[in-house]
Amino acid sequence: MAIMALSIGITGLSQSGKSTLFKSLTCLSESDVSGRKQPLARAAVPDERLQRLSDIFKPKKTTPATVDFLDMPGGGSSGLGSQAVAEIRTSTLLLEVVRCFNHPYLEGVDPLADVDSFETELLLADLKVVEGKLERAKKLDPKERALLESLAKPLNDGDISAVPQFDEEEKKILSGLGLLCIKPRIVVANISENDIEDGGPYYKALKELCDKQGTPCLAISAEIEAQLADLSADERVEFMADLGINESGLDRLISICYKKLGLQTFFTAGEDECRAWTTKVGAKAPEAAGEIHSDLQRGFIRAEVIDYPTFIECGSLNVAKEKGLLRVEGKDYVVKDGDILNIRFNV
């Protein structure tokens, strides 16, 4: 079965810069995202390997993998409404933006208090769901009841770090509730342009907290990303070099999101199209084939496989075949990041 579309919900308290980050990361103007309850932008996953394959095969079409960014409602003094919570629950992963910069028209910076405030809103929303489920459902499956009861105390205590780590089977049991406390979460410190070198003191304090929670935390300047979004590709490279930046915020975000969600990239390549696909780490060949089309998974026979570094050394599939480096793998083959696959199937 193909994985669900990767949707990253960008959220956080109001004035954190989450919407600015959304617009700059996706290179979209206000008009591009209007008319939706949840402004959505589909961004290409940056991957130099795909461009290199395209240079070699010279296909009619080159298609990158994509990721969906959703500009979710933010929390504030009045809290998150039920509709806002319902929208946030639709995300695959939560990207919590936290203000780590001073602004003359905003109150003082306190990222730790902001994180605590926002997380409290999420936990209270989940507590309402869990308690309601336990009170109303007298005939709950024993496994589901046990899982819900294990959540009740940390939710009551407002301690997100004490929320149990569930395995895949347990997550499946709870999946219908859309609980926010068990969704993968990444914290983004929205820093000042002046702190781009080391993140600044606010980021360091926030990262220390996140490290204790086991939550990934990275520093991004939405201000700089907004400037990058307005530049051409060549101008971006020059601007980033001037700032001493090796990767854009988007590149770093995609990388950390993939790692958090346990995802990887494989390729299909030929004269018609070179394309990057997303699948789970540990997926077997038929599962990866299913990302391309369900027919390929259903009628899977075998896959011709070559890893990316080996292919680049060979320079072409013909040379790889002559050297015996194009392998034939069956249904039990575990796909690796960067594999180039040619699926053989029959339906």
Secondary structure layout plus pairing:
Blueprint: E1 7-12, H1 18-26, H2 30-33, E2 40-44, H3 48-57, E3 61-63, E4 66-71, H4 82-88, E5 93-100, H5 111-136, H6 142-157, H7 168-174, E6 185-191, H8 200-213, E7 217-220, H9 222-229, H10 233-243, H11 249-261, E8 263-269, E9 273-280, H12 285-292, H13 294-298, E10 300-307, H14 308-314, H15 317-322, E11 327-329, E12 339-345
Helix pairs in contact: 1-9, 5-6
Describe the structure.
This protein folds into 2 domains: 192 residues, 3-Layer(aba) Sandwich (Rossmann fold); 64 residues, Roll (Ubiquitin-like (UB roll)), CATH 3.10.20.30. The longest helix has 26 residues. Helix 5 runs antiparallel to helix 6. 34% of the residues are buried. It has 347 residues and is α/β, with parallel strands linked by helices. About 2% of the residues have low confidence. The strands form 3 sheets. It has a 6-stranded mixed β-sheet, sandwiched between helices. The protein has a 3-stranded mixed β-sheet with strand order 3-9-8, sandwiched between helices. The chain is built from 15 helices and 12 strands.
